[in-house]
Amino acid sequence: MDRAPLAVDALRRELLTPAGPLAWLDVVETSPSTSTALVERTRAEPGLAAPGALVAEHQVAGRGRAGRTWETPARAALTVSVLLRPHVPAAALGWVPLVAGLAAARAADEAGVEARLKWPNDVLVPAAPDVEGLGPYRKVAGVLAEVVPGGGVVVGVGLNVAQTVDELPVPTATSLALAGATHLDRGALLVSLVRELTSAVGRLEEAGGDARAAGLAREYADRSATLGTRVRAELAGAGGVLEGVAARVADDGALVVETADGERVVTAGDVHHLRTA
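Structure tokens predicted for biotin--[biotin carboxyl-carrier protein] ligase:
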């Protein structure tokens, strides 16, 4: 399927300083994983300026949580990794992937799709019928954040834009096109995502890393499809499984779940929404 490439020169005019927030923007035709490539680059170039972004027109081995990989059709998705160097306490870095999810959700909004968030940062859109683990939603975007040497964080975002049903990797996924988006301009989505992300991180910095004081915790909670929902959390490592009601997001970005044995804190793992009787 023939799809339009990104207008790189126009994007650089809009996103690079002084007009925009980025110190640099690279767009490549193909990459196994923009996040892997950018993490490797930051290790080779410790002084690499931030914020900066690496975009791939075709990502063939994208990485998600728990080492999952996927391929997106050429020019059908927005696959970008952003290098940030947030000037916040280390304890506040847990909010970076959450506000990245918030930024991706807002970009989806601007495409005319009502987006919600599944903790920590999966971007969901309403869809029927219900599916296991997501309920009345499908996943349209995912975020992966990795800390790199020198106080940096690489935030990778994969946003499904124009995929057809046959091009989606799993039945729980969807695209903006399938969700009824009013526009599918990947360039406009990239501009929105980058501006929203850098603005949110700037607010977090101004508040000394306090997401509540910055207003980001409230904005995240208002958009959450997880809070107030009964969930099953498959904890990372040998942490086991717990079930309960997702009560709130803690000060460090962890998910607090109210179980039959009291409150438990989930810092990493897969969280599934459970159907209510």
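Residues 186-206 form the longest helix (21 residues).
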